[in-house]
Amino acid sequence: MWWALILEFIVIGWVVVLVMKYLSGRNIPYHVVVSVWISWTSALSLVALVPIDLNLTYLKRCIDHFQDDPAEQENHCSLSYWLSWQAFAGGEEDSLDKAIRLSEGTLRSCWYWVFAVCQINGWVLLTFQQSFVEAQHFQTRQRLVQAAKENGGFYGACGVIALVFILILYVSGRDLDFWVTAMFALANAICLLIVAVMLGYGLAEAPKAIFQRARAKPTLRRALYNVFECHKGYTQAAEDLAGTLAQIFLLRKACGNTLRHLSKEIIVITKDCPFDLSSAILMHPTKGPSIPMTRAEMHSAFLGRLQEIEAGAVFNYEMTEVDQWINSLDNAQLLPRGADVFGIQEALLEAGHKMLGDVDGLDPGYRGQADKRVREKQIQRYIDDMNVPGTPLVHRALIAAIMKRNDEANALAEPELTHGEQIEDPEAWDVKRLVDLRKELYVAGKKYRRNKKKFDANARRAVLLQDLKAAREDLGDFRGMCRRLRSAFREGDRSAETGWDGLKSPVRKQWGGKHGLKLEVMSFVWAAILAPSAKLLASFLCAAFALMVLFSEISVFPGIKGAFRDAQQGSILLYSTCEAASVPPGCFTDEIPPQPWQTPWRVSTSVQVLIVAHLFFICGVLYFSLLRLRIFSIYEVVVGETDAFSLLFNAYAVCRLAPSIANNYLNLLQEAHEVPSESGTVFEKVFSGMGSIPFTHLTFNEVLPPFVAVSFLVTIANALTRKCVECPRLDGEAHKTDEMIEEAHGIARVERRMYENRFKISNSLKRTREQEEARLAAQAAENREKLERERARREQMERDLEAGVYSG
């Protein structure tokens, strides 16, 4: 068993490392990474101890029954797994008893340690770290003080509750052990209630979510809705961040004169900005590139700089002056709503117009022509030749913008400011206000990165699903699709009539090489046929397991418990466990004989695999609920961009809930009692008082499971009435409308063209690189040929000298 404990810890620790690497965003402090890793590893280790503890408990009961017959012990009780402790038992005759006692003692220590780590991290350390990370003071000591102040209220409330309990215990004559047990029971009650509500929600929602993902149309519709929501959130986050950066830029300008005494703190805030603020240039619709002078101009300049950075990072695309100018027209609402901004930029770029001077040259007024109608006709002719997309209204707006730039080139309608806008009321700024501004920058930057990451991921997913749907329709009916895919797989047929050339999508790279087409066929078959079928099967299995867990939870309610004649009392999880470990009292008793399908007094080590499957499903459903509900929207897990606050929140949530999950599962198997027994689990002996309600004869394990049923029924009712009545969604999402989906289609089209443009650029760069490599290879071959000719000439000269033919 000792090797299983070590292997369990190593596997869990490594899995946590991979998950954190997959989820974590940028600039996560090292102390957060270490604390979250310890917390997650401890919480999962606590849950993973349950199968080992139950197996040991079943084994002890089996050994006690066959204590006079060692052969039957070996035959029925599967001792080999536990006899690994004999290496530490000295090899005496009673080494089996010592190995069992050593196993029990080791489990007791493990329970104590992981429970202590979970409680300390979950209730003290991680909440303190959350406040420390969120505090944006300029000195570490001040951040520690701020974290202590923010957590002081919580700790103070806990202290008051503890004092009240001590007073009640003193009046009632209770001892200290009862007080400690009562405190554990109170904390466990709160967490058990959360587990019950979240488990009921997840048991109803998880199968439906998997079923929806198995259907192509709802999956595409949800992806488009996510694109719409994420685009709205990302746009608003960019506006908020640009406004904050404008305020910081004004402070940066003032730190050399009126705010010189705060220059050190202002420089620190400036370094936290996502880019160098002085590098942002305003692209004015009329004036063109200029230095931002007012707060509004700074806001526009920083917003454009963010767009430029993201275009380079996501699409490998460097925006030209003309691209920035078209964006400025759109931001200033000088183009009609719904104009194809990217299409206009692409048409101008393909025509070779990269600088504003190139666009100005389209207007004859740039060369002195003054007649307005002649200018408009000439510009319209150029626009038609370049195939600029858009309605006549869009073309007229673009023509008006070009003419206005040339008309106001020398005489601007608005006078320029000499020194630009200055900071208002510099005397009102102090360190405390700068701390608030730094916190605002931190929150705005975190929100912007998270929303941008979500938008990019959902946009890629929506584009891929659209391409998958188009490829499926292009292949025809099912028989025709099978015939063409078989021809492509076996014969490499890429023709449009009899074969297939692979799934073409700008958000994925096609397989290349000799077996590239085979891999394309296999990936398409998986994505279009096998994966939906697997998800459909998984949704039905998930629903079946959910009903098993739900019935098992309801079976422990006092009003239902005892209504069954068998020893399992209706707990379906216990029925399945008795298949691998048939021992009393869960499987049979002296009054209730074993079922005909049971082999009494048999314990197999495979019982751990079965229990692990139960716990894996329950923990998966709970974590699905934790991510789906996003309690009060105070946290959010985004792949690759999860911030420190959300990581810490998830860590202390699982630390607080892990003991309650273990206690609840043991209760479903009738192994969690308030009075410990000699034949009970080690968990029961250590934490037997966790399930009792202080000063009553009731237990939380019997009272709280009905909350699972209530939460399950509420979730089912909400899902069934969602289309009939506009009731709010429990996960906080808005109802999807056709207007949202239609707008999302437009956003997805723009993103598709951006990705297609990225592939054009990458293919162009690839061709350029290949041409350069071919040129260098040809040049090297030519140089080698010259050297060979020179060497041959010299050899001929030497031979001529030797023969006396060389004439000098």
Fold and architecture overview:
The chain has a two-stranded antiparallel sheet. A two-stranded antiparallel ribbon has the order 3-4. It has helices spanning 2-23, 30-65, 70-77, 95-134, 140-172, 176-214, 216-254, 263-271, 295-315, 321-331, 341-350, 356-360, 372-385, 392-407, 431-474, 478-491, 516-555, 572-577, 607-629, 644-668, 682-687, 700-703, 705-720, 738-803, and strands spanning 282-284, 288-290, 581-582, 602-603. With 808 residues, it is an all-alpha fold. The radius of gyration is 36 Å and the shape is globular. It is built from 24 helices and 4 strands.
Give a summary of the structure in a few sentences.
By secondary structure, this protein is an all-alpha fold.
Low-confidence stretches: none
User: Strand-and-helix sequence, N→C?
Assistant: HHHHHHHHEEHHHHHHHHHHEEHHHHHH
**End-to-end distance:** 95 Å
Question: By helix and strand content, what is the structural category?
Answer: mainly alpha
Largest sheet: 2 strands, antiparallel
Furnish the topology, listing elements before pairings.
Elements: H1 2-23, H2 30-65, H3 70-77, H4 95-134, H5 140-172, H6 176-214, H7 216-254, H8 263-271, E1 282-284, E2 288-290, H9 295-315, H10 321-331, H11 341-350, H12 356-360, H13 372-385, H14 392-407, H15 431-474, H16 478-491, H17 516-555, H18 572-577, E3 581-582, E4 602-603, H19 607-629, H20 644-668, H21 682-687, H22 700-703, H23 705-720, H24 738-803
Antiparallel strand pairs: 1-2, 3-4
Helix pairs in contact: 1-2, 2-4, 2-19, 2-20, 4-5, 4-20, 5-6, 6-17, 6-19, 6-20, 6-23, 7-8, 7-9, 7-15, 7-24, 10-11, 13-14, 15-24, 16-17
